[in-house]
Amino acid sequence: MAQLLKKSKSLRIYKCSICEQLGQNSHGFKKKDGTYYVEAHHVEPVTNLKQGNLSINNLITVCANHHRELHYENSVVLVNDDKRFVFEIDGKKVEVKKINI
Fold first, then answer.
1. How many Cβ atoms from other residues are within 10 Å of residue 20's Cβ?
2. Dihedrals φ, ψ of 73, to 5°?
3. How many other CB atoms sit within 10 Å of the CB of residue 12?
4. How far is CA 64 from the centre of its chain?
5. Residue 79 β-bridge partners
6. 3-state secondary structure of 9
7. What is the pTM of this model?
8. Distance, CA of 53 to CA of 86 (rounded, Å)
9. Distance between CA atoms of 4 and 70, rounded to whole angstroms?
10. What pairs with residue 97 in β-bridges?
11. What does each of the 101 residues of the chain score in pLDDT, given as a tens digit?
12. Given 19, 32, 35, 91, which residue has the most CB atoms within 10 angstroms?
């Protein structure tokens, strides 16, 4: 699992997918290794035990602030299809393309 999380962060260039779509600074602070801090979020919760929940195309990268918002229900997933997620967060619609490898 840890390798999958690292891979998703690398493929998303260590950016917050939501900040990027909102036109905000999408990089957090730089870590000692030179990469930016970002967190991985399972859009479909792992606890739902659905097939594919642990796959890379169920992950987005987000800043710590948006990660908390996603978990504490200040957002709604409007679309979860083969190619994208569409969220409503803070009253704004945000589309994030899925990682497909």
1. 19
2. 65, 35
3. 20
4. 10
5. 86
6. helix
7. 0.87
8. 17
9. 20
10. 84
11. 688 889 999 999 999 999 999 999 999 999 999 999 999 999 988 777 777 677 888 999 999 999 999 988 778 889 999 999 999 998 899 999 998 77
12. 19
84-89 and 92-97 beta bridge pairing: antiparallel
**C-beta atoms surrounding 64 within 10 Å:** 12
Length of the chain: 101
CB 97 within 8 A of CB 61: no
Q: Please, which residues have CB within 8 angstroms of residue 75's CB and are 6 or more apart in sequence? A: 69, 87, 88, 89, 90
- C-alpha closest to that of 40 among 62, 20, 18, 23: 62
Name the H helices within the chain.
2-11, 17-22, 64-71
- What the block records as the tokens of 9 is 């962060």
Name residue, tokens 């978990």. 71
